[in-house]
Design brief:
This protein has eight helices and 25 strands. It is α+β, with helices and mostly antiparallel strands. Strands 7, 8, 9, 11, 12, 13, 15 and 16 form an eight-stranded antiparallel beta sheet that branches. A hairpin with a 2-residue loop joins β12 and β13. The protein is globular.
Amino acid sequence: MTSTTEQLAGQLSATTLLRFATAGSVDDGKSTLVGRLLHDSKSVLADQLEAVEHASRNRGQEAPDLALLTDGLRAEREQGITIDVAYRYFATPRRRFILADTPGHVQYTRNMVTGASTAELAVVLVDARNGVVEQTRRHAAVAALLRVPHVVLAVNKMDLVEYAEPVFAAIAEEFTRYASALGVPEITAIPISALAGDNVVEPSAHMDWYGGPTVLEHLETVPVSHDLAGCPARFPVQYVIRPQTAEHPDYRGYAGQIASGVLRVGEAVTVLPSGRTSVIEGIDALGSSVDIAWAPQSVTLRLADDLDISRGDLIAPTAAAPATTQDVEATVCHVADQPLEVGQRVLLKHTTRTVKAIVKEIPSRLTLDDLSQHPAPGRLVANDIGRVRVRTAEPLALDAYADSRRTGSFLLIDPSDGTTLAAGMAGDSFAAPAAAPAEDDEGWDF
């Protein structure tokens, strides 16, 4: 009989999904890279390619402009920039992908936060002629804040610097030093030319000094963490099922999606914020009973005791239940046009629970250019990232964002019109600095 670990590994190895985001300064070639990735991996339909070729001819271009595969808004095409987050779905025989192509302008930093918030990998582009610039450092800092576990530095337009190895080496060293100091755990540097296709899907014939993977090869092979073993189980209740029919007169189930970890029949659990305890009597998934379930499955739990449980409650193993608090200290990225101010009344949405809250203090605003802290700014405006202290009307079972990106994050919402004001990450801002990369004699792999 196979073990639980083997069962989980078998389920996950059948098909893996990688969510990743691209970021970079204006004109660094993000959309061209994405278009090249889709085109060369044969993930573009014939009619899509024909439309791009037609649009390119209308603009006086002889070759298809692959950036048009992602820049779909009229304003984006007119200005030659990316404004909104563009999501693309594609697959290779080895893996499925969800890609978020995020804008490069400073005023769209909030859009990058949206795209990278669920990403397991971020591709940061740098123009080989310009090197690491202010926006590059900003994107590295956002990736570090959001605890993106893998970062790829794509040094683009190598064809415009004659594929010179010293140019790539200097940029890779500078970026790696900066990102490692922010706590980014893994950094891989790849020299590319998105326009010519060098090292995007196929290895480059112009850079024989580089012995590392292409961009697609790295995307296909990078480890994807599902937090099954490392994170304690968390089950936010979405809906209480009470059919009260002749067939099921006493059925009481709690439906939702497992946010992290593994749940088993017979396991002792605690319901938060009430603190009442019970035992998992049954787990229903896809119309049948199972003995075990794991993130991100949607299931219905049945408990041994009839407890007062409703939407917004959190069910967790008693041995690893989170503490509840009404005082939340976090880093937030302000995404609304209206400012966030001290004393402002807001709604705080955490998983399936929404509670009233008040902003008690804004201790600092982060300057991403040099990572300095501007003390007591009093307010945060669009695209600002800062520390806040929020007092909630009811207790929350909030994990640290460093421990769980799902249950350590929350939204601040304007109670008057439902506008999302800020995205929050509970706990410390940055992770501890990553260890210095080891020497690699075979090629550049930071």
